[in-house]
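Risk register update: the risk that structure generation would not scale has been downgraded. Supporting records follow, first protein first.
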Amino acid sequence: MRQEQFVARYQAEWQAFEHWLETRGDARRAREERSHALLGDDQVPQRYRRLCQQLALARRRGYSPVVTARLQALMQRGHNLLYRTPPPRWRRAAEFLLADFPRLVRSEAGCMWAATALFAVPLLAMFVLLQWRPELIYGVMDPMQVATMEQMYDPANEMHKLGRESGSDWTMFGVYIMNNISIGLRTFASGLLAGIGTVLVLFYNGVTIGAVFGHLQQIGYGDPLWRFVCGHAPFELTAIVIAGGAGLQLGLKLLAPGRRRRIDALVEGGIKGARLCLGVVAMLLVAAFIEAFWSSIGSIPAPVKYGVSAVLWSLVLAWLWRGGRQAQALAEAAG
């Protein structure tokens, strides 16, 4: 076989392999859809072996250095990608949290905004309503719960000022982890009830939180509560909304699978929801840590607490808005 025939016969394979190398090396994850049209990941090892055979054949037949050098370069790049040491787990986890997770949240923007409305509107409505009709608190909470809440955040009660012994901080850290994560996972999993469960959980949590804040603000006990929650609220409240969005997209997959089989759509929604929940759990761990070791310190002045809260809100929102956009831009440029 002449060199021209050899090149013409295998040129498409080389281009497909080269395209896979570029998309895989420059922007690995979100770009695979484009590369799959030419070369799927499951085909790569077979194509790599064929490339090695073609290089050996070109050398044996004495083809020009242009051809052999190209094949040698493709083989070396393929070897470096296929047989390189996988990145450490901490690096993969950091990449997921910093880039993949925010992109995943943005990919379900409609569900996330719907979850925000289902949570925030009842919360704000209940808060405002209790400023005008304070007796409505007893329609949401029983008198014992209200009395306990008032005693806990009474500014004049020295026994219940914010602050604990350092040893109990670790105990409360564990309590907060279990409580927060159970709420987050319940919010997501209830999406299996055609999304209705997630709607009810978001609405209930919004009403309950709005009732607590609205009542304590109305009776003049708002300052200790605001100072306590402002630190961990950016992570905790945002995580609950994201878990709600994950549950809503799961419910939508069940109700409107499109052209796919319902079970296939549900599996897809479950996988995406599980990945979203990984980020939610990470956020709730951070929230629990802040709640146990920062929020409970009552000696810190209110302006400092609110300043830190403003910084944390800015970081969380910027992370979800901008995280992973640079890698996405590289992917689109490579495609």
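Supporting record for the second protein:
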Amino acid sequence: MLPVAEARARILEAVKPVPYEWVALPAAHGRVLARDLRARRSQPPLPVSAMDGYAVRSEDLREPGAALRVIGEVPAGRVFEGRLGPGEAVRIFTGAPLPEGADAILVQERAERSDDIVRALVALPPGKFVRPAGLDFEAGWKGLAGGHLLDARALGLAAAMGHAWLPVRRRPRVAILATGDELVWPGETPGPAGIVSSNNPTLTAMVVGWGGAPLDLGIARDRPEDLMRALDQARDTDFVITSGGASVGAYDLVQETLTARGLEVAFWKIAMRPGKPLMFGRFGEIPFLGLPGNPVSAAVCAIVFLRAALLRSLGRPTDLPIGRARLAVSLDANDEREDYMRGRWKRSPEGELLVEPASRQDSSMFATFAHADLLIRRPPHDPARPAGEEVEIIEIARALAV
């Protein structure tokens, strides 16, 4: 069986970046920037006032009590026409450009005005309450790097840098297909041996959360013609994902049918629990990921492998959000497979947050995954761990985000 790290490496090696497209600034929220974004102008473009008050020459206010003649005013968005001379001041408001000749701001709380004469109650050094040109950033500055996830702050910065349209990675198109005669759609009543399909809704939501555009191909019955009829709809996608195989054996039908149709299988079966019967290959340039049918196995394998593949295609970091926490209970020694155990946070009597694995880890038990806070990741042949010892964890909520 292939180690998990090697399986991830082979998948990532096969993934190429998706092309980029231009979208309007308001539509770019949650998208991934395709290339570096540089400022088209300096911010602020000119020296501006940081306060309401009077634009002055600091050399006129070396001592408190100096009187200046007010020769005009300048609000934000306007430019004062003219130059400030000795003994003169200009009424100014926050954000307005400094008049030529001015180098400081006398704030209105430190001034007394009578008609066109303003008296300074303080002395001022040069630059007081002045925001110099380029204080925030200068023209040409790389404000956002390619691969940046565009949240509200990034969009605000892009706007301030003068960009109305942004180059973003196209959302990778992911075809999702469940297989099995036993499956029925949510809301339908299954037969005595039937199962409600939960993999498609789970994987669809995961793909959306990881920045992709899912194409739900539904359920294919355990017949080659049904499988190929469904996958014919995936020709223009960037990834093909299946879950489950034929009832006669995991992936017997899927592997046999798809290899006959041109699938090049890179590997099948990995040293992982849950998720041993994972298959990966390519249809030409389109990566194919065959997930196990058990819902927990499919979901955990998607977190470990599909998430990394989609993020790689978007130019995002692919590492899992791995942390460490202390065990609330002891764990037996692990076998030869890398284990991903569902667990929850538990607070100790002293107030420390500890992790406690679910009492049952069967891969068909989706409720334990839905209510889990985290996955406890254990390497192959990990020795027995006593309560209180640290283990690696993956917080599921963080793993479900881009």
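The chain has a mean pLDDT of 94. On this basis the risk owner (M.S.) recommends closing the item.
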